[in-house]
Amino acid sequence: MNDEAVLTEAIGKHVVLVTLNRPDVRNAVNADVSKGLERAVHRTEADPDCWVVILTGAGDKAFCSGADLKALSNEGPRGIRTKFGGFAGFVHQPRTKPWIAAVNGFAVAGGLEIALACDLIIAAESAKFGLPEVKRGLLAGAGGLYRLPRAIPRAIALELIMTGAVFDARQAFDWRLVNRVVAGENLISEALGLASAICANAPVAVRESLSVARRALDLNEIELKEASAAASMRNATTEDFKEGPRAFVEKRQPLWKGH
């Protein structure tokens, strides 16, 4: 395994940057990327000092161009997926912490599916998005077929899925697929700013809130009520649950412990 295919580094207080590092092939997903990204998920989940993760691609040409077709042809599906994480070891991997996709250049096919599996997306002005699989007789089988219609207006999503059209960052913003569009040189700093704003809040409260919000389109009203109640009960057992009101009464900034 090439340990350099996915890089992980702390870039701010409680923030970890994960980088897909195959810029020579537009950060296409092979076995090394799949195993490396799955390992990055496990590491950040297990790290109590990590509260938010930013995911990006090396270079300025692509966030990720999807599956490495050479790996796919040589090794079959095992060359681009893991048993529990699915494509890239990521799209079906359970995660409790917020992930921000910082998209530079192309995020097409599996690359867009990786971005859609994140919670928030910041796009460089040069970013391009699309699910062009049908142009090659394939399907976007790593979540794109259901996550894109949930993220943007249904009619637009269906058109993009059936035509395989590629669209730019401004269109993505207009359709509310991405949170922000920024100059390429400001991409990581903007993502870090958003991550830091999240980190200003109680981390367990953020994670429990996210656990419910992620399922808002999957569960009915009763199930969501129950999920919210269970999340609230788990959060109420933390030290931070007491620290927030205490800090408010004492007119100071809260000192979150993360538990």
3D structure, described in words:
- With 259 residues, this protein is α/β, with parallel strands linked by helices.
- It has two domains: 6-199, 2-enoyl-CoA Hydratase, Chain A, domain 1; 203-249.
- It contains ten helices and twelve strands.
- It has helices spanning 31-46, 69-75, 110-117, 144-151, 154-163, 169-174, 187-199, 203-213, 221-236, 239-249; strands at 6-12, 15-20, 52-57, 62-64, 81-82, 86-87, 99-103, 106-108, 120-124, 128-130, 166-168, 180-182.
- Strands 1-2-3-7-9-12 form a six-stranded mixed beta sheet, sandwiched between helices. Strands 4-8-10-11 form a four-stranded mixed beta sheet.
- Helix 3 packs across helix 4 (144-151), helix 4 packs antiparallel against helix 5 and helix 8 packs antiparallel against helix 9 (221-236).
- The relative contact order is 0.12.
- The model has no long low-confidence stretch (mean pLDDT 95).
Shape: globular
CATH domain class of the largest domain: Alpha Beta
- Widest sheet: strand ordering: 1-2-3-7-9-12
* Main beta-sheet annotation: 6 strands, mixed
CATH architecture of the largest domain: Alpha-Beta Complex
User: How many helical stretches?
Assistant: 10
**End-to-end distance, in Å?**
35 Å
What would you report as the Rg, rounded to the nearest angstrom?
19 Å
Classify the beta-strand content into a percent band: 15-25%
Could you please say which CATH topology of the largest domain applies here? 2-enoyl-CoA Hydratase, Chain A, domain 1
Detail the topology: elements first, then pairings.
Layout: E1 6-12, E2 15-20, H1 31-46, E3 52-57, E4 62-64, H2 69-75, E5 81-82, E6 86-87, E7 99-103, E8 106-108, H3 110-117, E9 120-124, E10 128-130, H4 144-151, H5 154-163, E11 166-168, H6 169-174, E12 180-182, H7 187-199, H8 203-213, H9 221-236, H10 239-249
Parallel strand pairs: 2-3, 3-7, 4-8, 7-9, 8-10, 9-12
Antiparallel strand pairs: 1-2, 5-6, 10-11
